[in-house]
Amino acid sequence: xxxxxxxxxxxxxxxxxxxxxxxxxxxxxxxxxxxxxxxxxxxxxxxxxxxxxxxxxxxxxxxxxxxxxxxxxxxxxxxxxxxxxxxxxxxxxxxxxxxxxxxxxxxxxxxxxxxxxxxxxxxxxxxxxxxxxxxxxxxxxxxxxxxxxxxxxxxxxxxxxxxxxxxxxxxxxxxxxxxxxxxxxxxxxxxxxxxxxxxxxxxxxxxxxxxxxxxxxxxxxxxxxxxxxxxxxxxxxxxxxxxxxxxxxxxxxxxxxxxxxxxxxxxxxxxxxxxxxxxxxxxxxxxx
Length: 288
Known about the structure:
Blueprint: E1 6-9, H1 14-30, E2 34-40, H2 52-71, H3 77-81, E3 84-87, H4 90-101, E4 105-109, H5 123-131, E5 136-139, E6 148-153, H6 159-171, E7 176-183, H7 198-213, E8 223-228, H8 231-242, E9 246-250, H9 256-260, H10 265-272, E10 276-280
Parallel strand pairs: 1-2, 1-4, 2-3, 4-5, 6-7, 6-9, 7-8, 9-10
Antiparallel strand pairs: 5-10
Helix pairs in contact: 8-10
């Protein structure tokens, strides 16, 4: 893991507690700083109130006190010392915090069967996944040691860098890694005589997945699974069956991973998962 800090988005909610607890555990495992960040959207009253400075100071102090009271039993005092309260849109605040600290990981709290990233809310969550250029860990369960890491790959150019970063993260906790490739069935086309041999597709995908895994250090110790079906449902089912603590996906693959992480499918994937999700941004094919 790189030496840059971990940025943790927090608020005074259970999701904020999840993020703070897990973010601290990850930073401790990687021996890197943990910086807690909370975003406040400025009230419209600040623009017209002549005493807006005092109003703002009171708002910041109130927010800081609420968050500290909520999470102080879940992180050490030194983590609270790094709590930053910033004004602005949460996505912009996170991006700016990453840039200011040269951070390499953002941690946010999620909630199973509800809005996937409550700290952002609604469509802003999708925007965050698309625009934050560092790995994004969405915490859905109170796990502080990730022992079983499931990496979902589509065998695109994003597959190898996603696997490498997933293994780097897993190594922090000496976690077992399983690699899952999902083959999405081709839709049937009426009145067309071409038959799709799914067994041949699965065999090819398995061969390609195993060849990919052999390029990794200690790849021979990794379990490989190749399944057919709907990507979001298949990933969730495999994560539950294998009792995974974490699912890792690449956000800019050229296959189904790219589609999974755009639009409403993001909510379906994150809501289905029984565990946390690490989204690895990958931009274009790796350099030769």
